[in-house]
Design brief:
Elements lengths: L1 H15 L6 E6 L2 E6 L7 E2 L5 E5 L10 E3 L10 E3 L25 E2 L12 E13 L3 E5 L6 E7 L7 E7 L2 H5 L19 E2 L13 E4 L2 H8 L6 H10 L3 H4 L1 E11 L18 E6 L1 E4 L8 E4 L2 E4 L5 E2 L5 E2 L26
Helix pairs in contact: 3-4
Bound molecules: 2-acetamido-2-deoxy-beta-D-glucopyranose (3 copies) and calcium ion (CA).
One 2-acetamido-2-deoxy-beta-D-glucopyranose binds next to strand 18.
């Protein structure tokens, strides 16, 4: 019976999925003992743990109250944004709520009344924790997608920033970059920063609402179209220089540089229809724990790895006290299927 249980536990890592558990109690010829594996937390909806900042001051609509209209209804400018009225306010937190009733709730900027001065807004998301993206970042715009925007990322809690992806209806004109598609990238260019025209062209504001940062398409370069061959992806993440870091962020920033124009030039006589409205920002990822934890919990306002393998720190990035600090190494996905724990000594 005990033997059976041990056998069962021993098989657990394979049964529950790759890298899901950090250790199991097994029986060997020398008696029962712990066996250790490389492990990582499950992917989570990261918008539930984020802190947001919108810049510059005064970019959110409604203070003072203002009227706006939509590209579909450009001469009926009777909609109102009023920050002091909960029913008419559009604060940043509405980009992260869950829209239970199916009604879109959104952050909205002021209108482009100061045209031709550019209408610029930064939306900065901070986690105070390294996150590994596991799925696409999806940003939903309610009244048309920006004709020019940029996504930036930080790996050091906002001290330094790097371009992540450029978006424009004309990449050459906006950024002097040729337009590319993530689908056309190859194994050697999977972490290339590119400009795409796929998410910026006018197609009616209700038809095409989302702007993506394509994580799945990049994973598919290694794991195949249905991400069936994850082993190959994990092997590449381990060996290809910079690939793992490419999908790791502590902060993200959307730099909105020019709003939707409704498919035409800017009409100066009606600037009330130009603004940004974001209803959702979906970020799916897992805490980076250096393959030393399978749990990540939200404590005192920040995500923290529950470190195993005698490691400690927010990312399990060092050895516990009384363990040789120089023996620290990240766990490894290899050899397949259970990887190496690389525990502190
Ligand atoms: C947005 O952030 C960038 C740096 O990432 C900064 O240069 C720019 O001035 C900011 N724009 C606004 C409107 O705050
Ligand atoms: C960030 O996380 C660390 C470690 O959990 C914590 O000590 C620190 O107070 C956090 N900083 C902020 C600004 O939340
Ligand atoms: C961590 O250290 C304890 C003793 O302090 C030991 O029993 C345990 O096996 C160690 N774990 C690993 C993964 O080496
Ligand atoms: Ca919302």
């Amino acid at each position: 019976m005990l033997y059976l249980l041990a056998l069962l536990l021993h098989r657990l890592p394979l049964a529950v999925g790759q890298y899901d558990i950090c250790k199991s109690w097994v029986t060997t010829d020398d008696g029962p003992s712990w066996e250790f594996y490389a492990c990582q937390p499950k992917a989570m909806r990261m918008k539930d743990y984020v802190t947001v900042r919108v810049d510059p001051v005064g970019i959110t609509c409604g203070d003072p109250p203002e009227r706006f209209c939509t590209h579909e209804n450009p001469y009926l400018c009777s909609d109102e944004c009023d920050a002091s009225n909960p029913d008419l306010a559009h604060p940043p937190k509405l980009m992260f709520d869950s829209e239970d009733e199916g009604l879109a709730t959104y952050w909205q900027s002021v209108t482009w009344r100061r045209y031709p001065e550019p209408l610029l807004a930064n939306i900065t998301l901070s986690w105070n924790k390294s996150i590994e993206l596991t799925d696409d970042i999806v940003i939903t715009f309610e009244y048309g997608r920006p004709t020019i925007m940029m996504l930036e990322k930080s790996l050091d809690n906002g001290r330094t920033w790097h371009p992540y992806q450029y978006y424009a209806d004309d990449c050459m004109e906006a950024f002097s970059m040729p337009a590319r598609r993530v689908r056309d990238l190859s194994t050697t260019s999977a972490n290339r920063v590119l400009c795409t025209e796929e998410y910026s062209r006018w197609a009616g504001s209700k038809k095409e609402k989302t702007v993506r940062f394509e994580v799945r398409d990049r994973f598919a370069i290694f794991a195949g179209p249905d991400l069936k061959n994850m082993d190959n992806l994990y092997t590449r993440l381990e060996s290809a220089k910079g690939l793992k870091d490419f999908f790791t962020v502590t902060d993200l920033r959307m730099r909105l540089l020019r709003p939707a124009l409704g498919g035409t030039y800017v009409q100066r006589e009606n600037l009330y229809k130009y603004f940004y409205a974001v209803s959702n920002i979906e970020v799916t990822g897992r805490c980076k724990c250096n393959l030393h934890a399978n749990l990540c919990t939200f404590k005192e306002g920040s995500l923290q790895c529950e470190c195993e393998h005698n490691t400690t720190g927010q990312d399990c990035g060092k050895c516990k006290k009384n363990f040789r600090s120089r023996s620290w190494r990240a766990g490894s996905y290899l050899p397949l299927p259970n990887g190496s724990p690389n525990a502190c000594k």
